[in-house]
Amino acid sequence: MITLGEISKSEAARYMGIRTAPDDMTAELLDKYEEIVRSRLKPAYVFREADVEISAEGIYLSGLSVPLTGKSIAKLLHGCHKAIVFAATVSAEADRLIREISVTDMAAAVVTDSLCSAAIEQVCDRVEIEIFGDMPKEQHTYRFSPGYGDLPIELQKDLLVYLNAQRRIGLSCTDSYMLTPTKSVTAIIGIKTVRE
């Protein structure tokens, strides 16, 4: 089970396009809403390990009926014998909270939205730690999501079915392949073949 630690306010500020120290009003809002966001969000994730098989049509993961296509994913999984597919969310509470706050204070809603974005990144980092434990970082790739590079965004639906994510963590996607709840991620991480 994943629990949220303190959400990075500097990362949330970057989501707002702030590259330097935020002004006093923004810093105050970040302090205030970081606590509120942390108290409301309910992080959850699900993952599955798969064998990687390379073919002319693309890369197949065991149990996934469609191939992963594109040069980006081929480069990522080059030299990998297995992959982890995972989905993570901070729950529909994030969307609810942003909507609630936007009714009365748009500046606070923007801050809250950014904090929720920073929160899902924290969750993904913690998922990696839980899955890989003490495995050296050199033995697995970084995470890669549908829509990155030339990996089709349409893969989103197939990954959610593959993980049974709707039933297990309440995660689905729209006809335009946007995840709902919105502060959610699906990703693939390659596990590299270790030569003796």
At CATH level 3, the topology is: NADH Oxidase
Count of individual domains? 1
Along the chain, the helix and strand elements come as HHEEHEHHHHEEE
Number of helices: 7
Q: In CATH, what is the class?
A: Alpha Beta
Tell me the number of strands.
6
Structure report:
This protein has 196 residues and is α+β, with helices and mostly antiparallel strands. It has a single domain (9-192), classed as NADH Oxidase, CATH 3.40.109. Helices cover 42% and strands 20% of the residues. It contains 7 helices and 6 strands. It has helices at 9-15, 24-40, 71-77, 93-102, 106-132, 155-163, 165-169; strands spanning 44-55, 58-61, 80-89, 172-173, 179-180, 184-192. Strands 2-1-3-6 form a 4-stranded antiparallel beta sheet. A two-stranded antiparallel ribbon has the order 4-5. Strand 1 (44-55) and strand 2 form a beta hairpin. The model has no long low-confidence stretch (mean pLDDT 94).
SSE inventory with pairings:
Blueprint: H1 9-15, H2 24-40, E1 44-55, E2 58-61, H3 71-77, E3 80-89, H4 93-102, H5 106-132, H6 155-163, H7 165-169, E4 172-173, E5 179-180, E6 184-192
Antiparallel strand pairs: 1-2, 1-3, 3-6, 4-5
Helix pairs in contact: 1-5, 2-5, 4-5
List keywords for this structure.
alpha+beta; NADH Oxidase; four-stranded antiparallel β-sheet
Summarize this entry quickly:
42% of the residues lie in helices and 20% in strands. The chain is an alpha+beta fold.
